[in-house]
Amino acid sequence: MKKVNVLDQEFMQGFIHMANDGWEQRWHERNGGNLTYRMKEEEVEACKAAFTYDQPWTDLGITAANLAGAYFVATGSGKYFQNILSKPEESLCIARLNEKGDAFQVVWGLTAGGRPTSEFPSHVMNHSVKTAIDPSYRVIYHAHPANVIALTFVLPLTDRDFTLALWESMTECPVVFPAGVGVVPWMVPGGSDVARATSALMKKYDVAIWAHHGLFCAGPDFDSTFGLMHTVEKAAEIRVKVLSCGMGIRQTITAEDFRAVAEAFQLTLNEEMLK
Ligand code: 2HA
Ligand code: ZN
Question: Is the pTM of this model over 0.85?
C-alpha cells in the first residue's frame, strides 16, 4: 500500500498554518483555544492508509446525527497552539464519529497520548448546526482574544449590544458579519450545556461570544474563519480604545449609514440589530 503522509496534505497544512497564525496573534495563551475541521470525503480517502482503528470510543455527551461517520481534524486537549507548528503529530488528531453521531474515536495523531479538545462537544454541535444550514461550512474556531473578552465586562451581554458595538467600530464589520454576533452568558466550559447554548446561536450567526472567556467563529474554510475572528477582535480592540479615552462617543456610524452599506454591497443586514 502507498505510504501517505497526512502532514503533507493541503488541508493539514492549512490547519497548521491557521493555528500558528492564531498563536502569533496572542489569542492562545498556554493551552487556550481549539480548532476543528470537518474533512472532505476525498481527503479522508487520501489519508485512510495512515489511520488506525484500534482506539476506544468515547462518549460525546451530545448527538450530531447528521455528522455520523464524519472525520475531523482537531487540536488536542491540553495541547498548546504554540507547539502545533513544530510538533503537529503530538498536538493534533483526526477523530471520526460513530454511526449515531454520539461518540468519537481517534484514528491518527496525538502520538504522545491524549484526546481531542475539551470543547469537542461544542465543536461537533456547531458543525452539526452549520452543516445542516450550509454544507460548505467546515471550520469551527475557538480563541481567547483579549479585547473581545474585555468588552464582556462592560457591555450588556446581548446579541444586539455586541453586534452594534462591533459594527460601529469599523465600517467593514457589517460586510464581514451581516447577521451580527451572538452572546452566551458565563457558563462552565467544556460541557454539553455550553455546547447546546453555543450551537443555538450558530443557527443565526457565524460568531458566538462566551462572556469572560472568548468566542467561537464558523466558516467554510481556514482563511475566511480566521479572517472573521481577526475582524471581530480588531473591531473589539477599537471599541476598547474608544471607551478607554473616557470621553464618550461623540459620533458614530448610524443605522441609516449601515443600510447604505448594505445596499452598496448587496447584503442582507440583520435589521433586528438596528431597531
Ligand atoms: O483549550 O479554551 O475553552 C482550553 C479552552 C477551553
Ligand atoms: Zn476557551
Answer: yes
